[in-house]
Amino acid sequence: MATVDLASSVASSIFHCSNENFGAASGRRCEGRVAIGSRKLPAGIVRALSGDGKTVASTSRWVYRGRRLISQTVLQPLPASSPAKVDGPWKRDFLDLIADIAAGGNVEAILQPWISVLSVEEWNKILLEVGSRDWTLAMDVFKVFKSRSPLLPENCTDSSDLSATSFRENSVSSVGTERAKPSPLLRAYTTVVGVLSRKGRLSEVDTLLHEMKDENVEPDLRFYNVVAEAYSNFGLVSHVSQVMVQMEKQGILPDRATLELMISAALKAKSPQVGKAIQVFRSMLQNSMEVGIKTYLKLIEACADARDILAADEVFLAMRASGHTIYSKTWVKMIQLHASAGGYKEAEEIFRALRAAGIPPSASVYDALLLAYCQAGCLDQAFSVFREYKLATKPSLIAYNYLIEASGKGGRYEESLALYSELCNNGLRPSTVTFTSLICAMVQAGQYDKADRLYKKMLQKRVAPSAYTYTAMIRAYTACSWTRLGHEVCVKMREDDIQLGSLVYGAMLNLYVQGRWYKEAAGIIREMDRKGIEPDVAGYGVLIAALGETGEEMVPLTRAMQASDWEPCWVATFLVSAPSFKDGLESTPEADMDEAIEKIWSVFEEWATFKDREANRSFYNALMDALWRRGLRRRARSVMLKARDLLPWYNRPRRGLTSVLDLRGLSVGGAQVALLDWLEHVAKYSENSTSMVIHTGSNEPGVGRYVAAKGRGVGAVKQAVTAYLEEMCSPFRELAELGPGKLQARTELVVNWLSKHDSKDALRLHDYV
Q: Where are the PPR repeats (predicted)?
């Protein structure tokens, strides 16, 4: 008791006790509040005054004394079940309180002994901790805070409490700014909104916003940013914009966090609004705002995904100027972005900038630069970088794969094989991509035996083939007319449960059509139609060109094409099988035939509108090829004239002093139709023309993208047209000064030649059916 008496006497001599019921000296529990002087009591004196060290806690309050506002230390009793507010025991019991609330039960009953002693920071701590586990419990805590906490003016029972609370809500911050401190209620609202946003409870956030409006609680910048973050996490750009509008109405300027949240919302939107994000980013730079490293990285990633190279460059340059540390991953991303667009020069510049920054290139950087060169077909530069790569570090398998694929596409299949041997010697295990690139290189070079050996080695090494591997092998066996081996590949592909798409189906159709396995081809058509998979450009070309064949074995394929939902197949089968007309397609008198022809032209118009140039060229090439081989020359010309009418870029004669017929890009049948149509009209423009030139091309496959059987391949158009004109004793000759693939004759000689052969059907567009 001596210590207690001494402490009591010291306290009495220093401070003025305003409550006679204060029983610290006797050790009895204090039942009221005690305001002692204008300074806080030391912890030791507080424990002494409480007697047991557990019944008194001190808080600081502001009260009016006359006209002066002073700070007082207020001693208030703690519940018997609560410890004194000292660091160790208080912290442990406070965490126990949070655990009790999180465990469930009556939240108000659990908080009852604590309501009068919890500070604003502690209320918010409870809201955060409990809300991280269960947002509904956080809402219950918030309701208790609003209805019971003495920190809120409406819950204060005496004038001193009200004065103190009112002052705290409107006091000026200690750092001398003019912005008012947030009230305890606003701070609690801010915390709860943050909890709800992390739990994705946006409807509850909206409810709280309306509640604040009804209670006239005025938000501050921090609150608006928390709300903006809630909407930003779900990509709700319009909601974040509304928050910024409300800020403007209230006279609050958005800060860096606000604008970065708008950028994040634009990038997280269901359809990312990269343009919107870039606009906000530019406004930040114009207002000299610092942009965070995470925002830079998000913008570059989004620009790369959107293939917006200019925007990515703009962000990257600003990032370099900002002084942020740029790690290797970002350099690689920028090089890869330019590489994918074929911008190897820009990739070179970024690579040089990386070195100038003193950053040693990593393997990933070298891989990205190799990709840029390989995509652009710059093999010499690629191998130069690869040699430097090998001096710096061990090249990755990715680097070898890039070079193998690029060498194959460039026709340098020997180098692809050398790279394969090198990577094996370096201890790297060839992957599916490695073997597929090698096989594709061999197929492109016509090295089908090597492709076959590589495929078998791939299976021996237990490297799983991909859909691209199987497709390449099917094409190889098709080119060699090894239909049975190709069929075995198709069977194995199904056994491996490979996902079949239009590319694979197109290769399978080509295999079976070229091998005249028409029943199997018909089965593929039915399977594709059942799955809703439409043939690609090459697939349509193969099927339509196949209709040029005749015979009973073609019946299953023709019926399958007629029964499919594919309009191009219906058009083709109709044109090759419909009855003959008197004067081409347009002159038939039958009403049902007129309706069918109208439907055909509508399909042509649809393709011209919605399909690209390659698809249209392949479609018309295959169709004219089939009609020519069936002897339906006038129909083929009708198709050609329709193509010229619908497609401005389609091949047509150029008239002048030198009349030119360009046959490049046409199929053999299409080229012959165009030639005869051109010759039929020579007399109309012979007076204004002195010479005639036919441009066949020297290495034109003449089929667009479709691959078919006969009369196709490198130089097929040139061979067919030249042989045809020589057989007819035409005056056209290939002159060296004009270049390869060009036949020339004087117009006068051509007119005379045609007049001598006017009665010959070989020079007229008749139907032979």
A: 185-219, 220-254, 327-361, 396-430, 431-465, 501-535
